[in-house]
User: What shape does this take?
Amino acid sequence: MSLRSTIQSTLDLGFSLLCLGPLTVLFWRGTFNAITDIAFRDLPTFSSRWYPALILYLIGTTMKILVDLTKHSLRSILINKGPCLQSFCSMILVYLDAFFG
Assistant: This one.
């Protein structure tokens, strides 16, 4: 590894840690807080909000696990199928993974 590539890797890591990481967390926390405020606007107190939030969290976690299990079981089925079907199933699984993740 040359000195130039070491410096580039170090700068890339620093930029990712100090800029991209915090901005990504800030974006998703803001998005989640906005969705939470919209979804639970009718509930007056914090203690009445935790139960629906827990239900949403558990549904999302369950669906994420099911998508991961489906991904592994579909791999052996789709290995001998056409590229169009493989691409379509891959897009659906990536969408579901992102939606519930």
Observations:
- The chain has a mean pLDDT of 82.
- DSSP finds three helices and no strands in the chain.
- The radius of gyration is 20 Å.
- Helices lie at 3-39, 46-78, 83-100.
